[in-house]
Amino acid sequence: MTKYLFYAIIETKKGYPMKIRVPAATLAVIMIIAAFPVSAHASFTGTRIKLRSPYQDCMNRKASDTYNYNNDTRDYVTPYDADTDKISKRTGTSLTIHWYPVYGSSGYEILNKSGKVVKRIDGMDVNQITITGLKKHTRYTYYVRAYKKKGGKYTYSKKSKAAAGRTGYQIKGKSEVSAAQMARYYKSKRSTYPSVYASLGAPTINDFTRIVYREAERYNIKAEALFAQICNETGFLKFGGDVSISQCNFGGVGATGNGASGIDFRSYGASHYKAFGYSSADQARKHAVDVGIRSQAMHLALYAGAIKTIDYTIDPRGKYVRIGNSPYVEWLGIKDNPYTTGEKHSPSYRAQTRGWAAANNYGYTLVEKYIRPMKKA
After folding, report:
1. Fewer CB near the terminus (10 Å): N or C of the chain?
2. Backbone phi, then psi, for 37, in 5-degree steps?
3. Residue 171, domain member (yes or no)
4. In CATH, what number is assigned to the domain containing residue 162?
5. What's the pLDDT tens digit per position in 330-377?
6. Phi/psi class of residue 104: alpha, beta or left (left: φ > 0; alpha: ψ in -120 to 50)?
7. Structure pTM?
């Protein structure tokens, strides 16, 4: 039987250290290799840091889900506020960079686009770091490299590929677009407006966006975030899925799939007209657009932590929201929300999902495809 004299540490393909048993026959070879530190030095300096996605094992994925999250470059630099769960401290001025650790390193350095070191952190097993004090709504590019310190001297690995990210777009706060801008943006994407809304409280797109702006202001959220979601969920008010155009359900509230059409805010508003501030069921029905947008605005405000009290009549789905878990538009995507847990390799760990929608890069799409162009309209 082979005798194992000691354990050795090797590096896996993903850069993680692994302990293995080494047989006696291999001992002499290892001792010879160890006698030549120049070779080890060359190996370290030739290593390139690999960037990673922190979400690759989230959501207790099924085997049929073959999407490779680790190839999603948007996940390498993510909007985050370091070490805080307090809504008041979420400022949208931080980014977190993620990478695979390198065995044998003493720590890591973060370099900005021009190559200047902006952060250094000690420890071989570190795999992420948060950069704070950044500008809001701003894109930053970073590189990561490992370093080895010996005798006061530093040697460095190759730097990673460029990793870029934009600081998070806060949902809570004062709108950064006007009702007129939202209307212009809509018209640049679609030349027609649904005539059915003329009898439901919003005869024109200008009327519609004024309602969006007012309801966003009511719940202390940004109108551009609310309108971006409406445009995305409805295809610029074309609909076409399980929800019909006349339901005035602009966020797919209650439309959970498998043909479920969700809430019809014409009848829902009529049944709860007093809660929405109308004098009769008929009046509420004639303002179903207002009712639907108000319900969605409150729902979004709960996700953002812009309000703390749930009115279960205004927002019948509010009981499913963990208040404040999505302060940024980017975090509305379940995969991209750091509060989403449930690693697929840990069946004993209870999975939990946070965020509005499961679509890949849902929140990033709202920012890049809708909000940013809207602000230029």
Report:
1. N
2. -65, -20
3. no
4. 2.60.40.10
5. 999 888 888 776 544 444 445 567 888 888 889 999 999 999 999 999
6. left
7. 0.81
